[in-house]
Amino acid sequence: MTLANFEISSFNLLRTLLLLSLLCPGTGNAESHIPPPNTLCTQPPCSQGVHLQLGGDGEMVVVFSSSSSAVPSEVKYWTKGSAITTVTGSGEAYSQLMWIARTLIHPDMGAPGATVKEILGRENTTRWAARAPFAPYGRGASYKNPTEVVDGIGAYNNPQMVYTSPVIHTVTLTGLVPGTTYYYTVANDLRNFTFVMPPNGDGSASVYPFTVAMTADLGQTDISAQTKELLKKHLRGAEKGSVMLLSGDLSYADGYYPRWDTWARFMEDLATEFPIMTVGGNHEYGDGEAWVSYNARYPMPYQQSGSVSNLWWSRDVGPVHLIGLCSYAETAPGSLQYEWLSEDLSSIDRSVTPWVIVMMHAPWYNSNSGHRAEAELMRQDMEALLVNNGVDVVLNGHVHAYERILPVYNGCRTACGPVYLGLGNGGNREGAYLPWLFPKPFYSAFRASTFGPGLLVIHNSTHAYYNFTRVGCQSKSVSENFENLDGADCTTTNFYGSDNSPNASDVMDTAWIVRPLNRLAGCSVPSCAQPAVPPTSSPNPGPTPNNGGNGKNCDNEDSAKVWAIVGATVAALIVGTAVGMFLGRRTVLKSIRPHSVVHQGLVDEEEDSSASVSM
């Protein structure tokens, strides 16, 4: 990497100025990539926000919304040459008090956003509360005339701060045949959609290769759109019906609930074609969200998997037993989630689903300065369950950066542990997290504060090929709020500094994940291959990134304190960046080559790239 990489060409400058006109905080123009409401129907306003999730075996769940309760909860579907089948389901609406976060007005990467005028229009009640209509007269109790935005939960006695959702319709199609292409349409919508039913977990060789697309912390920015487009390309290139995993933090509505509706439109072109399996994150839980919007819009197959909550569930799909866990529910032995997980893991038939993938939001292993050890209690409670049952891969989000973790258990590298994939870099409005901590743990194989999705292609019961591809970065080259959309040539530099990882300039991370046919062979007492980190002290980690809607923007009253912290670490960051640039030159070719092989989860960099994927 050279200093030339940081120079901005005249073309890039023009592109930057154009983006700045779209991403200026508070203008709302940054949402140009979000489609307008659907207009293709016979009785406007039309249904919209159509998306798919897997139900039980042979089931596909279709969710859509309508502005009128007169629209039936109805889906028509068919195959080529077959008659049309009509299925009815149920509909519900909900109301919540909106929550106003300062970062809604000044998001780091432009969207989702809201203008000061828009928010004050909701908080100001002078139009109707200035005078009580009947004696005794005077101002009503709801009177508010703010000149500045009031953060936090809206006033309960101000109906303008109440969000009432559209009708959320949920319809389950049953008896579907794996590998079959289905066509469908929803009530009051003239558009036709299509999907291929993913294979069941039946243990047959016909399920291979099986494709799983992965991301987390997606949001609805321009970077999010690039991540979504690459996910769609990956899934459309698959040979069989595929599935997408989204490990929490979906819409980044953060209590401003109309953003759930724009998110649904934003995702339609992907979510109408491929089922998206999700777990909730802190952005579905905090800022007044309390799981209400998430549970109504993203029903997971929890009842079909013996769970009592939509927040933890499992499902067999192709060669994978897929488990979703909740980072924000009790996890101790004896808790509902722990006891369910223990029973679910013990019921897995590895001859039917040899691969086990667990998704949860907050990571157990993370060498970034953001969200350090937030899930440590969950790890202590549940890690042994995962290792003792031979879990292969764990997907996380929460940390807005990418990191691949080698198989690890209780802080030690061991072939008995799962591979951890930190993919909280979908592209949400809060930007990338920096800096990375040094010395780098032995178990950290690749880390970079860039954006993009992951792709796992499972070739047989023991071999899977994994790929992460960068689609963009965050940059302060021209503006404080700037998305660098040039995934092929970018490096993140933002409020927290420059990416200090040796992988900062790498476009791609690839590896073979190779697991033994008997996942538990030799793992009754997992051995520790080497300590997690070298026996040296770690430097000051620097400022902690925004923890999800509760942080302050850099232009508020706490800015002086924040910049004081940044100033105290700037020397260390400059040195780290220089070292990262030097090491990046030496490692870039090695990092993007698709030759890393993981034997029982442990990387062997010297392995020949022609390693067979046959059993």
Q: How would you explain this protein's 3D organization?
A:
The protein is an alpha+beta fold and 615 residues long. The protein contains 10 helices and 33 strands. An 8-stranded mixed beta sheet has the order 15-14-13-25-26-31-32-33, with helices on one face. The longest helix has 34 residues, at 559-592. The protein is globular and about 80 Å long. It starts with 9 loop residues before the first helix and ends in an 11-residue tail after the last strand. The model is unreliable at 1-30, 535-596 and 598-615 (pLDDT under 50).
What would the keywords be for this entry?
single chain; 615 residues; alpha+beta; 7-stranded mixed sheet; 10 helices; 33 strands; globular; disordered N terminus; disordered C terminus
What is the structural class? alpha+beta
* Low-pLDDT regions: 1-30, 535-596, 598-615
Overall pLDDT, averaged?
A: 83
| Biggest sheet overview | 8 strands, mixed
Q: What topology, given as strand order, has the largest sheet? A: 15-14-13-25-26-31-32-33
Indicate the overall shape.
globular
Rg from C-alpha positions?
A: 24 Å
β-strand number: 33
> What is the percentage of strand-forming residues?
15-25%
- Number of helical runs? 10
DSSP helix fraction: 10-25%
Distance between the termini: 40 Å
